[in-house]
Amino acid sequence: EAPEIAARSIARGLIRLAEECEDANDALGAIKALETLIANAKTKAKCLPQIEARCRVKCASLLLKHTDNAHRAKTHLEAAQVLLKPLKRCEELRVHGLSLLGRTYKMMGNEYRRQRFGATQRGLQMAIGMRERAPEDARWTMWTFHYYLEHADACMVEEDWTGCETYLDAGLKVVRSIHKDTGSKMEVLFAVAQLQRALAQRASGSEEHHVYAAAKSADEAMTRMLSEIKTPEDTARLRFHYYVTRTLGKLMEGDPIAAKNDPSKFKSLMDEVRHANKEAYKWLPDPAAFALANYLSAEVVRPGGELKKAMMYLTDAKEFVDEELRALGVLPQGGDAPVVKTEEGESDADKDDDVERLWVTCEEEMQFRVAQDARPYLYLRVLILESIVSVALTSFKYDVALDVACQMTDMIETYPQTLSLLASHVEMVAGHAMYALGKYNEASARFARSASLASTPSWRDIGTLCSALALLCCEEEDSASRALELVKPVVRSHKEQKSASVLNQVLALFTSGCALREQGRFDDARNHLGRALKKTYDQVGNHQLMASCLRLICGIDTASDETKGMAESAFGLSKVQEDLPTQVAALIDLNRIYTAVPPTDANKNPLSPEDAEKMRQSYEVYENRKQKQYDDYMTSILENETCVERATRLERGVQP
To answer: PANTHER family recorded for this chain (predicted)?
Structure first.
């Protein structure tokens, strides 16, 4: 008996050592102690199967949290399930282990998606069974909620929308059976998750998304919760999640005007979240959630011409993202590891630590845990850079746009697999840059490439429509007919689909109007452009689109006071955005109109011939000055070696 007693003492000692190491924040020490016990569980450190299983689950938890050794964690968790299967009264340890196992399979990618479904299904069945046996035990209710959400997430990754909706509805049913008509945080959590599912399903092109029903359910759940829970710090993260999701829905609808008050809500909610209580369920890490909120705020104000405010939001969002990527040791654009200067000289060590750190500089160096943690920040960074390019192109800062577009190319070339879903966005930005530089054939090719890589029907339509617009500028005999051939299927699909966003509908009308104008079908062109203008004014609020519609319509109609007002409005909208190309085009229209229509004063009274001539001459001088400003800037861009090199790289496309 003495050797067995000694073995059990060794086991207890190793467990105590692991606990002390963990309390001292020495995770690696704790892992070594647990690994030693596990390796000798049947010999020198003899312990019961339940103890060994518990140590394996604990060791796996530490490995997942502090290391990149997901394979070793998977081995421990799978072995723990084998050990626990014949044992009774170990149900909570089993569901905990299955939860970690499902998380590990998710981290390891699509290769393990079936295993993830299996682990999640076993955990859900066990949680439901234990809840039925012990309904008064709140632990099993929480495990049931956990597995419903995990199962829904697994279904959404596979675009199994019916399965996802079913699991979320089942969870919501359990919540409401417990809380009846009173509000709760868990009801809001499930309702917001259902809204996220509906938005993702809508983006995929499915008509059975039930977005409006899901949005209504989330609104009602939020109202009930706020009437029951009066402590804001307990609900701050959940309210933040809810408002971000609702804003995302409005932007997906193509209706930023409906979200005009949301940026101010985000600002106050971010302050609340910083001082809020920690919650059991976390949607995104706080920095990622803050970056997303700032990015959405920029997308709300950008169409309305508030470009400086949009850049402020985007700069803040990028700072959040870059800081977290640095903390993770990930270089978003690859390259050499940063060199830190010290008193002794240069070192590759991080400036906050005394030890050297390993930096992730390419896809091959991206381990499972780092990839999982970095992915949301890398995604957000691409989207933020895309918006910065849009602002720069609109405000006639082509040098900035070319620089940032090349940064996006760096990212997709450095992490092609991680960012594969956003490859179409990089191609889209390259197309816009080529278009701005007057390389319309190259722009059309890049837009077509973007459409072919698009992960959603909505983005594919935008790529197709942009390709058609670039074709119209090529000045070839059949460019208008080719553009219409591209546009017609998109317009037809918008008539058949109820879920097409307002922005997509406006862009399709605008593009078809431009093509019809090129064909000389002016009545049809005026009709399409007029409808696009009305929709833009009522819902989209995109000043650049409004200015373009106004300018094109006044170019079709005969000179009159009405067309003069359109040209003046187009000029005013473009001037606010510093959109010099549209300003020049609007001034050309204004001078054409002033030649045919006698100028008037502020009270609509005709000016004297001398004053009228002075006004015409002043507008001509202004047009010439703006045209020279445009020409000089474009010359400086085309003669700048760095800009030419960047443009050539974008024209060449993403290199494998």
So the answer is: MAU2 CHROMATID COHESION FACTOR HOMOLOG
Which tokens in the block code for residue 459? 């983005």
Q: How far apart are CA 178 and CA 189, in angstroms?
A: 15
Q: In terms of residues, how long is the chain? A: 656
Q: What is the pTM of this model?
A: 0.91
SS3 514: helix
Do 431 and 454 share a structural domain?
no
Q: What's the rounded Cα separation, in Å, for the pair 448 and 427?
A: 9
Same domain, 429 and 503: no
| Alpha-carbon gap, residue 187 to 217, rounded angstroms | 10
Q: Which residues pair with 600 in a beta bridge?
A: 606
d(CA 555, CA 548): 11
Residues 462 and 521 grouped into a single domain: yes
DSSP class of residue 456 equals S
Tens of pLDDT along 53-82?
999 999 999 999 998 899 999 999 999 999
Domain residue limits at 248: 159-271
If we measure between CA atoms, which residue out of 329, 335, 336, 380 comes closest to residue 359?
329
The string of pLDDT tens digits covering residues 482-509 is: 999 999 999 888 877 767 788 889 999 9
Both 249 and 167 in one domain: the answer is yes
Backbone angles phi, psi at 347, to 5 degrees: -145, 150
> Six-digit token pair at 429?
């930005």
Q: Is 335 left (phi over 0), alpha (psi -120 to 50) or beta?
A: left
The encoded tokens of residue 312 equal 């402020």
In sequence order, which residues have a C-beta less than 8 Å from that of residue 476 and are 6 or more positions away?
none
Verify that 220 and 252 share a domain, yes or no: yes
Burial degree of 8 (CB within 10 A; 0-12, 13-18, 19+): middle
